[in-house]
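I'd like us to work through together how a protein chain folds, taking it slowly. To get us started, please write out a protein record for me. Go ahead whenever you are ready, and we will take it from there:
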Amino acid sequence: MSQAPQMASYQTNKTPTPEGSHAERLSTLASAQPAQIDRATGLKLFKDMTLGRRFEDKCAEMYYRGKMFGFVHLYNGQEAVSSGVIGAMKLKHDWFCSTYRDHVHALSAGVPAREVMSELFGKETGCSKGRGGSMHLFSREHHLLGGYAFIGEGIPVALGAAFSSRYKRDALGDKNSDSVTAAFFGDGTCNNGQFYECLNMAQLWKLPIIFVVENNKWAIGMAHDRATSDPEIWRKADAFGMKGEEVDGMDVLAVRGAAERAIERARNGEGPTLLECLTYRFRGHSLADPDELRSEEEKDFWAKRDPLKNLEIHLKKQNLANSDELRKIEKDIDAEVNDSVEFALGAAEPEPSDLTKYIWAEDK
């Protein structure tokens, strides 16, 4: 009787370096081809990233003071991805689909800070009328197709938006229909079936969509390298014949450059791109997470790559801005964020009689 082949043993005793495989990948990235920006664009990026950072810090303050409730997942450290991708797209023309870590995506898409903060407080003035909360931000006006509590939920929705763009142009004859959709999701989502199904359909129909993987190394408490057979997610694009690109997700200009290339391909009818951004979240998975699983060495390594600090260094080095200008932006942003809190605290609660409103489409 033939002997059954032996299965490879599962290794659980790997001892990666404190910074992990991301550091090795960052050091071996091909030519980053960062975006070239002028002064106005540089200041806009700094403002957007600062708004995202200060807004999230204020959310943490409100949560720990007992003013904000429920699940709250912050984006600190990943601002270069949101600003880099959405900043390269056309607001109120292109479409965006987020995850449960959606506050900063909404802000980058142009949703006013007052509306985002109001939603986090469950107020009628929120962008989802107080019905969605932190994980379900939505704004038709700003082409934000929603945040989604379950991983992978938003990818098929984004695919539908990209299909609509092609259908309007190819089937309905609208030559101006060239909108592109950006679908944001994390590394943990890339082990789900929806991810692969949507990659296949997007490439099959050459849909104008960018699959943006915000690979921050951790899916709640599961290290990325332990959860997937091939940790280099961008290479999975090869199986579908689509373009894949790996980029430093802590460098907003590198992200913007990659996004510009992906957007150009999409608008030209060349199909989708799988863009993997190597990034890191500076806080725990959520504000209820004590963040005890990640080592201090790892956190320190990534803190030194703070995307906001790196952008400031670049702006000064290229004589695009000075310290006084940047401090003025920070001061203005702080005022905007404080205003959003005051506005949200004073806003009206949803009326109980409107409990079933917005569930069904209403007659016009």
Remarks:
- Residues 34-88+148-342 form a domain with the Rossmann fold fold (CATH 3.40.50.970).
- The beta strands are 95-97, 181-186, 209-215, 218-219, 222-223, 243-248, 273-278.
